[in-house]
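Notebook B, p. 112. Complex prediction, attempt 2.
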Amino acid sequence: MHRMRAAAAAVALTALAATAACGGGTPTGGGAGDESPKTLTYWASNQGPSIEADKEILTPELKKFEQQTGIKVELEVVPWADLLNRILAATTSGQGPDVLNIGNTWSASLQATGALLPWDAQNFAKIGGRDRFVESALASAGAPGKDPAAVPLYSMAYALYYNKKMFADAGIGKPPATWDELVAAGKTLSKDGKWALGVEGSNLSNNIHQVFVLAKQHGADFFDASGEPDFTSDGAVAAVKQYVGFMAEHKIVAPGNAEYAQNQSLQDFANDKTAMILWQTAATTLASHGMKPDEWGIAPVPVPSGTPGTGQNVNSMVAGINMAVFKNTDNLDGALRFVKFMTSDEEQKILNKTYGSIPPVKSAQQDPAFDSPDLAVLRDTLATSAAPLPQVPAESQFETAVGTAVKELFADAAAGRPITTELVRERLTKAQQQMP
Amino acid sequence: MSSPASARRSPSAPPRSFLWARRVFLTLLAGFVLLPVYVMVSSSLKPLQDVSGRFRWLPSGLTIRPYFDIWQTVPLARYFANSLIVAGAATVCSVAIAVFAAYAVSRYRFPGKRIFTVTVLSTQMFPGILFLLPLFLIYVNIGNATGIALYGSRGGLILTYLTFSLPFSIWMLIGYFESIPRALDEAAAVDGSGPVGTLFRIVIPAAIPGIVAVAVYAFMTAWGEVLFASIMTNDTTRTLSVGLQGYATQNDVYWNQVMAASLVVSVPVVAGFLLLQRYLVTGLTAGAVK
Amino acid sequence: MTIATEGHAPPARPARPGGAGGRRGGAPRLPARLRRLGLPYLLLLPAVLLELLVHLVPMLIGIMMSFKELTQFYIRDWGSAPWRGLENYRVSIDLNAPVGQDLLNSFLVTCAFSLLAVGLCWLLGTTAAIFMQEDFRGRGLLRAVFLTPYALPVYAAVITWAFMFQRDNGMVNHVLHDQLGLTGERPFWLLGGNSFAALAVVAVWKTWPFAFLIVMAALQNIPRELYEAASIDGAGIWQQIRKITLPSLRPINQVLVLVLFLWTFNDFNTPYLLFGEAAPASANLISVHIYQSSFVTWNFGTGSAMSVLLLLFLLVVTAAYLLATSRGRKTADV
């Protein structure tokens, strides 16, 4: 019967080997829950040209923090493709980082989960007070009337990038300030296989950012005061129709743009195929596609009439990154100190300069580094004419539903189908029915 | 492409119709397979601003820079090592466990056998989405209770992937094992071989092609998985399939580098296939058995 | 050669290796018998444990989730999420509302896609394997070439295809429009109706090498004598393929086709990487649809309910398939 035993031993061994080899892997950076108070886990978002570049940028700053406080920060730069799912997983399990970056449009959704530390007066006091931050940036850190779920870290805004050479060739002296001017210039520019404006028709978030601003200009919002979806108001329908109309009606957008979702419109812009794009912080990307900084100009996004301002002259969403503290952290004090460090004037200047963004901290914004013509446009937009996307828990559903509707309308426009008010209203009605 | 004397199927030379059909079919198929590979190679040799331009069969302005840049943009070497460790370990464990299970099913009658095979097969139907979060939660709880870090570690990933490939491996191996004549087992038993001896001396050697096929399958399952890897790994344990997405950043997609990196990491795998394919075509009929 | 469910196991088993002891010694002692009885279970143990941990228990939790209201307000503490009874299911299959209509559309698209893709994968894989059964110059190299799509990381493969399918700059339109002049207007491949074809091409390209691999291995187990005998009887090569090769492949095909079907049906990576979060309606595969319903819109309860419905459907299909193919084979074997 020794063979039996041999069999048993063999099986047991395999099982053991399997569980040992497979189960007992190297335990690596866990996060909250099992860390010592002398360390923090920080999930940074990808802001620079690559993940490795982000690490190189952030590591010296984290070293500085360690020298000041003795707290070691374990950095992980999480790619955008994974960030939200990683946060969701962390939220469901309670096993997450201590401090993390979030896209500011997620603020209200994540706030609703209760996984993030609310920034009440007491917590704000520990990082120097609420007043240090620009109000519009704070307004995009959580639902109105509630303590913010995060604090602003980097701010960005949309601007009109225009190709100076193409403008000069077409005899257009200055960038358009109103949509009528943009369309008029567009008709001159769109010829010989070149096009006036680039859009990312299959990029849901980008579609949302654009139609949100246009809706504001038509005096409409996608959510009413009580936070209920209201996608089919005349203003919202007109906004979507106007945006898709650049391709469908005015024909100043190349039909091929309907399928763009990976910043191909920036590549076209850099390759002199399109004359204008509406974008946030495009400089590094344009440079990596071989464009020289003096080849493009930057101007505020057009408005219906007059100059950018508040109300119906809003011309950008408040784009940016917020920094949040995971409620389950066992090193709350350290986490707050870290947020304070990252939002300090000095770090704000260093980091925002590197990333080409604008500091949401008022005192840091005054640094002359942010006075360059490019950044001044962004800074002024943020200060005077930017509005936060709806801060409602259902924001991500909104982006999916309405973003998809716009994408489908672009597909229709590219196929040559007329984009009528009825069609737009029908698509938006369907989008609204998909909301919870 | 004449048929050599070692033809396996028939001693007489195949007719022209067969040879022509084969030639045409295999050529077209090779074209279909290689077309994207060609696009990858040619794109990987262009500077970034040229990649996005209109497609041309013969690229102008070749550069090998992307092949150097790939190592700086993302920690490719680490991701590659992680993938090799994870896929390798998952393959070894999966094949070993599947061989035992398939042997039990193909050579024994026992109560519960049917339930086992049917249940195992049915796990192939689970949509990954359904148990992604529950599995994550289980791993975290095991971690909290026992201190074994499954979440975020390579171990957790290995465990997951080896189980993903188990059902199909077991079913395929049952099929392959059943096709091995029982007479061989009997002969071994008469020679005094126990069940395990029979397995190792008779069944496994005879089923090498099947086992190799299953191993390749198990390896590729682990090698290519994206969804689970995207939330169960962190920076140090991230695998290639997820890590490659690092070439697409918020503002830029480094097309040329993605292609270059994919080619670089695939070369060892294809080379492995080349080495292994010898075993895919040896086996029962080619072996000593007559 | 059967798939070992007891129902259609061969009626007569010559000898079980485990029975050898009985033949050699006298009457087996009880503990030995117990051990012998236990051996198959012992052999299965690791597999069972792993399946429980990674597949079955999480699935049970998943089923439980489908009865709860798991929106972002509750995901932090699942236990406290309110029960919703069958409400999630009702929403999913309510054909008068957009959610139900979209799910049905997605389901039908997935069915059509799976049938097409599995058929093509199987056909290409089997044909190639049979053609390459005999040795010829360059066979080894060709085999490696054919396995290449399988070796490339999914992400790279799919975005390469997406790159080729671009309307303005892609290779597909360059060939079809610029070089062959087959289309008047440059067609979109990643938007609208054509996206179904694009998805099918990518899925087949990526998956057929697997069918090739499995069939190739299975061909090795067909005894050479069968071919020799047939050849002596005067059967030509086409007849040999029809009479010997294909019938011998049947058991492997049974599993292969089923597994290909299940994978294609549940495939997430290909459509997700090809189209992003919002696939065009004609290529909106159910896995992406469910992903969108749970992860993107943070409603894990409804997403789980949809998954469970999908699971039930696949269970029924699989059971019917196994019954049909097994019965077919039994009569064929007789």
